[in-house]
Amino acid sequence: MKKKRAVIVLLLLCSILFLTQPDKDDIYDWLASEQGITQKDDSNEAIAFGLFKKDGKQIQEMFSHYRNTGLFASEEKVFQDENGESFTIRVFGIAGQLIQMEDGFLWDWLN
């Protein structure tokens, strides 16, 4: 009986995580609200070349890695500004929450 209850609880937890997992649109919304990074515009050129704006300046997405496991999602994006300076943003999403992460053991383990 305890095993059956444990299995039911585990299935319920996995179902909740699956249903509340953030998607790419949630990550783009988070980038805009928390990091001030928005798409330059809706043109095909801006989308194809990964053109974004931050603090009124154009930046370009140089690399992106998105992972969707069904239970959680993560994305790592590398941007380059007009001066050639690059910066990386890592975000982990679970249960409808998005958390910025630093490079390190936990990020490597999750990805």
Task: Report what the structure shows.
The chain is of the alpha+beta class and 111 residues long. Helices cover 38% and strands 39% of the residues. The chain has a six-stranded antiparallel β-sheet. A hairpin with a 3-residue loop joins strand 3 and strand 4. The protein is elongated, with a radius of gyration of 17 Å.
Write a short abstract of this structure.
The protein is α+β, with helices and mostly antiparallel strands and 111 residues long. The protein is built from four helices and six strands, in the order ααβαβββββα.
Strand content: 35-45%
Query: How large, in whole angstroms, is the Cα Rg?
Result: 17 Å
Counting DSSP E segments of at least 2 residues, the number of strands comes to: 6
Q: What's the N-to-C terminus distance?
A: 36 Å
Main attributes of the structure:
single chain; 111 residues; alpha+beta; six-stranded antiparallel β-sheet; 4 helices; 39% strand; elongated
How are the SSEs placed, and which strands pair?
Blueprint: H1 2-20, H2 24-35, E1 37-39, H3 44-48, E2 51-54, E3 57-68, E4 72-81, E5 86-94, E6 97-101, H4 105-110
Antiparallel strand pairs: 1-2, 2-3, 3-4, 4-5, 5-6
